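Complex record, two chains
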Amino acid sequence: MSYARRAWIVLWKDLRIERRSKEAVNALVFFALLLLFVFQFTLGADHERLAAALPGLLWLGFVLSGLVALGRAFLVERDDGCWEGLLLAPGDKSAVYLGKVAGNLLLMLGVEAVVLALFGLFFNLDVLERLPALAAVVVLATIGLAAVGTLFAAMTAHVRAREVLFPVLLLPVQVPVLLAAVEATAAVLAGQALADVGRWLGLLAAADVVYLTTGVLTFDVILEG
Amino acid sequence: MSRPSSLSIHVGGLRKAFARRLVLRDVTLQVAAGEVLALLGANGAGKTTLLRILATLSRPTAGTARILGFDCAREPERVRPHLGVVGHGCWAYDDLTALENLRFWTTLHGRPAGEDRLRAALAQLDLEAAAAERVRTLSAGMRRRLALARLWLGEPQVLLLDEPFAALDQRAAKWLDGYLASVKARGGAALLVTHGLARGLGVADRVAILAGGRIVLDVPASTLTAEDVRRLWEAHAEETP
C-alpha cells in the first residue's frame, strides 16, 4: 500500500476524532480568547505601544495555543493500546508522522485563522488588506511549529513529566522560526510588501525543510521507544 | 514471504531483565505451523513479557525469538506483516465508530478492505448494530469483539493473543474457538496466553506453564485433563521470577 495512503488514513482518523470530540478546538479557541482579553487589558488603547507589541503578541498567542494542541497530539494513541497498533503497522513509520503533522497543521491553522480575525477585531487591525502576505508567513511558520512539535510530542508521550518537558524541549528549537515569524509579521503589518520580507520567508522555508526531514528520518526510532 | 521453517514460533534460551530483575529465564518453546499453544501461568509469571517480545514490542536481553524464521529483535519489519496481535488493549479509538476503527487499522496495516468486507467482519462478531456507533458507547466485551474482527480481517499467519477470552460472552468465545480452528486448518499458528484453564485446554494442541520465568511444563493438551492442568498450575503458582 502506498506511503501517501497510510499518511492520509492517519490524517483522516485525527480529523474525524477532532471533529467529533472538538476537545482541542474548544480548548484552543477558549485559550486564545483569554490571551486576547489579557493583551487588550494590558495594552489598552495606546496605538504606538500596540503597533510595536502586536507581532510578538500575535505569535505568543499562536505558540501558546500551538503548545496546547501539539502536546495533546499523541495522547489519543496511548489509550487502549493504539500506540502498539501504530508500531506494528508494516512499512515506513514516517507516513504516520506526516499524517500527524498534517492533522496538527490543519488544527493549528484553523485556530490561528480565528485568532487572527479576533486580533483584527480587538486591536482595530485591517487584516484583510494584508491577508495574502500574513497567510504566507503564518503558514510557513506553522509548518515548522507542527513539524518539530509533533516529533517532540511523540518523544514525550510516555514521559511522566510530559507537560513540563514538552515546552522545555520545543521552545528552544523553535527560536529561528519564532524570530523569523515575528520579524516578517512586523514588516507585513507595517505595510511592507511580501518581497521585502523574502529573507525571513526563506529562513522559515529552510527551517521547515530541516524540521520535516529530521522528523521523517527519526520518527521510526522515536515510535519504537 | 516467510523463510522455510516448519516452526511458526521458535523461542530459544530467551532471557528478559527489567533493571536487575530477571523476568524470563532461558525460556525455550516452539509452536509448529497448524498448532495452537496455550501458555498458562500466574500473574507476573512473564507471559505478557514473552508475548511482547514475540510481537516485536520489546527486545530480549538474551536468546532468540523467531516468527516464521525471522528474528523478532533484528528483523521486526519482516515479522510484523505476519502477526495478528490482541493484547490487553483493543486498539479502539473512542471517537471513531466501530466501522471506522476497522477501516483505519486495515488500511494502516496494508490490508485495506471494502465496506462489505468490513461489515462482514462486524457481522461475524455480532457487531452489525454497532457499526455506526462510536466505540466509547460500547461495552468491554464489544470492544474485545471489535479487536477480534480486526484480527479476522488481517488474516495473519501467526496469532499472539493475550487473554483473548476475557470479557467475551459464550457466543463470542465460541466464535473464537472456531476461528482458531480455521487458522490451524490453513497452516497458521497461535500462542494463547490465558488464565482460563478449561478454555485454554479446549482449543490448544499443547499446553505450557510458565512459572518463575521458566517453562516448567510443555505437553500435548490431549494428555491432560482440566483437573491435571489446575493441579500443575497450582503447584507452580507460587514460583516468582
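Note: DSSP finds ten helices and no strands in chain A.
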